[in-house]
C-alpha cells in the first residue's frame, strides 16, 4: 500500500506497474485519474472522497489534482514488488539517452524540441550536458 498526497495542480505522472494491479481509494479531495488500454483507449474519471478506481496491471495510468484543495489517496497494489516505470522519465531521462532523432520521430516533433524536453529530465544530450533539472512532482 502507498499513500498519495497531491497538492492542487499536482500530478503523479503517467507510469505503469508491470507486476501489479492498483486499486486507488480517495480519502480526501478530488483527483482526475485514468489509464490507457493497449489499443489506445483512455478510461478516466474525476474521483471524490470514498471513490475507488482500479488500474489494470501493466497499463499506463496517472493521477492529477486539478482542484483547489489538496487530495489524499491510498493505493493498494496486488504485489509486494509491483515495479514502477515513469513513462516520460524512461523516454526522456534514460541513461544512456535515447537519440534525439528517435524521440523526434516517435513524438512527431523536431530534434531541437526533443533536446529541450530531455533537458527538463537532466539527461545528457549529444550536443551538450545537462547537469540538473528542477522538476518537482507534487505527490
What does this structure look like?
- The chain is an alpha+beta fold.
- It has one domain: Jelly Rolls (Sandwich), CATH 2.60.120.
- Helix content is 17%, strand content 34%.
- Strands 5-4-7-2-9 form a 5-stranded antiparallel sheet. Strands 1-8-3-6 form a 4-stranded antiparallel sheet, with no helix packed on it.
- The longest helix is centred in the last third of the chain and has 10 residues, at 111-120.
- It is globular, with a radius of gyration of 16 Å.
- Residues 123-139 have low confidence and may be disordered.
- This is Germin-like protein.
- Mn(2+) binds at residues 15, 17, 22, 61.
- Belongs to the germin family.
- One of its GO terms (cellular component) is apoplast.
Tally of distinct domains: 1
- The named CATH superfamily: Jelly Rolls
Q: Just name the CATH architecture.
A: Sandwich
Cross-sheet strand order for the largest sheet: 5-4-7-2-9
Order of helices and strands: EEEEEEEEEHHH
Average pLDDT confidence is 88
By DSSP, the count of extended strands is: 9
What is the name of the CATH class?
Answer: Mainly Beta
Distance between the termini: 15 Å
Question: Which value, in Å, is the CA radius of gyration?
Answer: 16 Å
Strand percent estimate: 25-35%
Structural class: alpha+beta
Low-confidence stretches: 123-139
Largest sheet: 5 strands, antiparallel
- What oligomeric state do these chains adopt? single chain
Overall spatial form: globular
* CATH structural fold name: Jelly Rolls
Q: What level of helicity do the residues show?
A: 10-25%
